[in-house]
């Protein structure tokens, strides 16, 4: 039970509820804390963060503004404001906020990370990598920065450096399936199929329900002409997600390679049935079905 006049207790309860993803309840606690003391910059900041999480961006911006009126050096708030502006597509304003946070505290790795992510979204990959370099130098345990650095390096074809970044991320969190998947994808790009399968298998050891890893595993096995094993992987992916359209196409191609034309046609037909209108490749698959005699 919280003392009704203890603003710190209400604030702490709000933080606790926020960590439990109970954002509406957290906001109510921050509101009570702010009624008791409306000059608490962190309470406004955390209320804004909770509002942003539930998609109330305009209200979040208002809270961040009040927080910064009270404490214009609140780097967390500048970073949060930049992130919500980024989500709203106000890219240049977002970058200004990240720069302001960095100006106040050049060693604030979260702002370097946020700026790197935004620059990457804008296709400014070299600048993005430079920001991740700063973030990881300041905080070598920043898993997200290593992960994003890997993604960005892959985008510019720096595959070996990308693998190195994913390895850093995996040292911090060896159970991140997305990192294993992306590392596998880099090895796939490089034609190192054994390492790619190893990465997808590690991902699947952590989560057997990872349909993407089963799909990617099937792609590699298909390339090396291990069609039956590829088919098994595609079937695993489809057991998890029967509406995974791309898998039906690959399964059909795999079945054709195995000489199972009728089954291949059924797989292609299933793709056509579930593919969204205008889905890339739909017309080509229709032509393949027709060519196969149906």
Structure explained in plain terms:
It contains 17 helices and no strands. With about 290 residues, it is mainly alpha-helical. Helix 4 packs antiparallel against helix 5. About 75% of the residues lie in helices and about 0% in strands.
Structural Rg: 24 Å
The span between the termini is 70 Å
Mean pLDDT: 95
Which structural class do the helices and strands define?
mainly alpha
Which spans of ≥5 residues are poorly predicted at pLDDT below 50?
none
Biggest sheet character:
none
Helix content bin: over 70%
The percent range for strand residues is: under 5%
Number of helices: 17
SSE order: HHHHHHHHHHHHHHHHH
Shape: elongated
What's the gist of this structure?
The protein is mainly α. Helix 3 packs parallel to helix 5, helix 8 runs antiparallel to helix 9 (143-155) and helix 9 runs parallel beside helix 11.
List the helices and strands and how they pair.
Blueprint (H helix, E strand, L loop, with lengths): L6 H13 L3 H14 L4 H13 L3 H14 L4 H13 L3 H14 L4 H13 L3 H14 L4 H13 L3 H14 L4 H14 L2 H14 L4 H13 L3 H14 L4 H13 L3 H14 L7 H10 L3
Helix pairs in contact: 1-2, 2-3, 3-4, 3-5, 4-5, 5-6, 5-7, 6-7, 7-8, 7-9, 8-9, 9-10, 9-11, 10-11, 11-12, 11-13, 12-13, 13-14, 14-15, 15-16, 16-17
Features:
elongated, 17 helices, 77% helix, 0% strand, mainly alpha, 294 residues
């Amino acid at each position: 039970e919280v003392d009704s006049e203890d603003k710190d207790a209400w604030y702490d309860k709000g933080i606790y509820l926020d960590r439990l993803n109970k954002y509406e309840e957290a906001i109510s606690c921050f509101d009570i804390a702010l009624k008791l003391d409306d000059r608490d910059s962190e309470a406004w900041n955390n209320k804004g963060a909770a509002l942003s999480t539930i998609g109330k961006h305009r209200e979040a911006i208002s809270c961040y503004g009040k927080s910064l009126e009270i404490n214009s050096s609140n780097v967390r708030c500048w970073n949060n404001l930049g992130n919500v502006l980024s989500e709203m597509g106000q890219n240049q304003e977002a970058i200004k906020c990240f720069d302001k946070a960095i100006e106040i505290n050049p060693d604030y790795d979260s702002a370097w990370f946020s700026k790197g992510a935004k620059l990457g979204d804008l296709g400014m990959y070299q600048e993005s990598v430079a920001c991740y370099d700063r973030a990881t130098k300041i905080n070598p345990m920043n898993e997200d920065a290593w992960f994003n650095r890997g993604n960005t390096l892959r985008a510019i074809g720096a595959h070996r450096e990308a693998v190195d970044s994913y390895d850093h991320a995996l040292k911090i969190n060896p159970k991140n399936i997305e990192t294993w998947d992306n590392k596998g994808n880099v090895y796939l790009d490089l034609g190192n199929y054994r390492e790619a399968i190893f990465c997808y298998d590690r991902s699947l050891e952590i989560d057997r329900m990872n349909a993407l890893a089963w799909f990617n595993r099937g792609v590699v096995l298909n390339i090396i002409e291990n069609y039956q094993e590829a088919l098994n992987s595609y079937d695993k992916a489809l057991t998890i997600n029967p509406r995974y359209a791309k898998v039906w196409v690959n399964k059909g191609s795999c079945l054709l390679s195995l000489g199972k034309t009728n089954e291949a046609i059924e797989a292609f037909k299933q793709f056509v049935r579930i593919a969204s209108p205008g889905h890339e490749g739909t017309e080509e698959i229709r032509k393949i079905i027709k060519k196969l005699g149906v």
